C-alpha cells in the first residue's frame, strides 16, 4: 500500500472533505468478507473437464464389459477396452489445450486503484477494496466496484461492456457507476456500495458461470442408442451367459471344466457388438481434429461437441461493436452545415477544412480528432496560425480556436452548441429566436445524417466581442451570443473490411443474421445496410423497448426483424429464447459482460479474443484475433464433420443391429455364440473403424438437416438384418452339413471362423454402400481394406491372435456357398428396404394431400 501526497501520476487530486474509512473499519470489513475479491476464472476447471470426459454412459458400459472379460483371464478379448482410454484422452487433452490457451489470453495485470482512507489517498489492489471505501475514478481507469458518485469533475464512462451502448455516458453526482465500466475522461470520487460477488457485473455473470455442456445431435443419437442398449444389455447378457453355459453342459459342468470363462467371453462378444464404441471414438477424434484445424485459424474450441453445433446453425445473432465494426472511429466527410454541396454553400470549403484541422490538432487529440486529421491528410493540410486555443473538455462538450483577426471557430456536439448559443444570446439580452431560426435546419440535417449511421460534429464560426482579447477568451471560455453554422464533420464507427463478404457467405448458406446491439437502432440499421446485412433489401430495425414481452409473440415478431437496438442484457437472452421457441439453432457473438447471458442461452456462444474474461469463459468458441471473418470457416468445418459423421455412423449402427439380432437368436436357439470379441475387433477395424476415419475427413459442405438418428437407422436396418440372418442361418446349418460337433473346441473354432468371414464379407458390402460413389478414391478405399482383411488371414501371427483360420476341403466349399447365400440375402434386404421406403413415402404424400 502506497500513500500519495495528493498527487497521482502528475495529476493534482481535488481537495474534498471526506476522510474515508479508518484502519479499524477496513479491518472489520475484511474480517466480515466484505472485500472486492471475485472468482475471475476465465475457463472451465481441470476437474470439470476430466469429469465431463470420464464419467459417461459409454465409458461405464465398456469398462464393465472389459473388467468382466479380464476376470476370465482372456485379455486378448478385452482389446476393445482401449477405446475408453483413447476416447477419454482425446477429449481431455483437447479441452485442456483450449483451457491453457484461453487462460493465457486472459492474463490481465490488475492496475492499482486510488482510495481515500483516513484522509489520505492510498494505492491498493482492486481486490483490497472494501464495502464503504471512497475510490478515485480517473480517465483511462476501469471502475473496480459498484459505487455512487460523491463528487465529479466531468466524469464520462464507457459502459459498453455492460450495456452494449458504444457512446460514452456523462455522470452526475448521486448517480451510480458499475464495475466493468471504463472512465473515458474526467474524474470522480465515489462511495463503494457493492463489492465482489454482489456487484452488478458479478450478478450478471453468475448464471453464466454454471457450466453448460453442449450435447450434439450426433452425441444425442449415440446416447439414445446407449440408453436403449443399457436396458437391453444387462438382461441380454445374463440370458447369453445362461445360454452359453447350457451349450457346455450346464452350470455345474461349466464350473468344473472352466468352460464358464468362455461362456462369459461369448456373452460379452454379443454385448460389445451392440455398443458403437468405434463411433464414440471417431466422433471425439473428428471433433478434436476439427478443433486443431480451427486453432490454426485462430479459433479456439472450448467444448468439442460445439463443433457439431456449427453444422446446424441457421440463425446468427451479431453484436455490432467488435463484430461488424472494430470499435475505431473514421471521419467520413466534411459537409456544409445547411447545403447539400459546397458549391451551394456560403462557406469556403478550404477555410472550413483548415479550421477543422486546427480544431482537431490538439496536443493529444482524441480518436475523433485523429480520424479527422487522417481525412485531410491527402489534401496536405498544415497547421494554421492561432492566437489562442480552447482544448476540448468533456464538461463543455466543445473546443475552439481563435485566429489573429478575432475569428473564433468552434467544434462540438450540435445539440450542445445550439443550446449553448441560445443560452448565451439570452444572457446577453439578444433575441433567441434568431439563433433558433439559424440552427433549426442544421439540427434537422444532423438528425438525417445520424439516421444514416453517422456521428455528427458541428463546426461554427463566431467573432470575439468588441475589445475582447484572444487570451481573455481562452482564460474564461464561454460561447458567444451568436455564431454561424459552417460545416458538419461526419464520423462513423470503422467497419471491418471483411464484414460484408462474411455476411454474404452466411446469406448464401441460408443462415439468417441479425444485429443485436445496445446502440441507437437507427445508427445500427445504417451500419447493417452498409455491410448489406440483408442483401439488396433494407434491414428492418426496431427499438428493444418496442418488442413484445411474451416469448411466443417475440418469436413471431423476430421473423421480420433484422436489427434490434437499445437492447438490455436480459433482452438479448430473451431474444435467443424466442428464436429457440421457433425451433432455430442459434449462434451468438459478443465481447462484453452484457453478452454473457445470451451467449450462455445460445446453442453456440462465440466470444471475441478481446472480450471480457467472463464472456470468454461461457463461450464455446473464442475468435482469438477477434476476426469475424473466421466464422465461415468455423461453420464449414462443423458441416464437414457432421455430414461425414452421419455417413459413417451408418456403418457402426449396422453392427449394433446385427449384434443385437444375433444375440437374440443365440438366446432363442440355445446355440454357441458365433464369434469372439476379438473377431469383431478385427472385422470392425477393417470394415468400419479405419475406413470411417478416412471418410469422415473428406470435404463436405452440406448443411446439416435434423433427424440424424432416423436416417441412420433406416440405412442400418437392412444391412444389419441381412448380416444377422446370414450368420444365424450359417450357425444353424453348417455344423449339420459338415458334421461338426460344436461342443468340441476345435469344431467350434472352425465354425466361429466361418461366421466371422461371413460378417467380414457383408461388412465390406455395407462399406461399399456408405462410400458411394465408388468411381473415385472411395472405390479404392473399399478395395484396399477388403484386400487387407483377406491378406491378414494368411499372416500367421495375425490369424493366430484373432483366432481366424481358413477351412479346408469340404468346409471351404460350404463356406463359399454360405457366402454366396449371404450376399443374396443382403441384396434382397436392400431391395426390400427401397420398396418399403417408396410405399411409405407414397402413403405420406397421399395423407398430406
TrEMBL record:
InterPro entries tied to this protein: ATPase_P-typ_cyto_dom_N, ATPase_P-typ_P_site, ATPase_P-typ_TM_dom_sf, ATPase_P-typ_transduc_dom_A_sf, ATPase_P-type_domA, HAD-like_sf, HAD_sf, P_typ_ATPase
Top-level class of the enzyme under EC nomenclature: hydrolase
Domain P-type ATPase A: 110-206
Bilayer disposition of the protein: Multi-pass membrane protein
Keywords assigned: Hydrolase, Membrane, Translocase, Transmembrane, Transmembrane helix
A Pfam family per the record: E1-E2_ATPase
EC number: 3.6.3.8
Transmembrane regions listed in the UniProt entry: 54-72, 78-96, 224-243, 263-289, 648-673, 679-700, 712-730, 750-771, 780-799, 811-837
Gene3D superfamilies per UniProt: Calcium-transporting ATPase, cytoplasmic domain N, Calcium-transporting ATPase, cytoplasmic transduction domain A, Calcium-transporting ATPase, transmembrane domain, HAD superfamily/HAD-like
Superkingdom of the source species: Bacteria
Localization per Swiss-Prot or TrEMBL: Cell membrane
Protein's recorded name: E1-E2 ATPase
Organism annotation: Bifidobacterium boum
